[in-house]
Amino acid sequence: MNEWTYSEWKELADREELAAFYLYTPLCGTCAVAGKILNVVTELKPSLPIGKANLNYVEELATEYQVESVPCLLIKRKGEQAEKVYAFQSVQNILEKLS
Description:
The chain is of the alpha/beta class.
């Protein structure tokens, strides 16, 4: 999972059929667990564009998408906001949301 800028996310989300953007902060323990779940997801779905960003550096995105807490996974389908996931629960749960 690569670090994306806000503009990279917007470009990919508008261009791709399905895209996801993982927002975290470095000192968040739950974010570390969520990041491990997403690393497995990216191994299982290598063609799916999933990026990540430290929320401290993309504050405008937090405002635009009304992100309430981290970890947060933004999912867009066909350029439209589909879902915000705060409870990652398991690899299977995230795979279902990205199907």
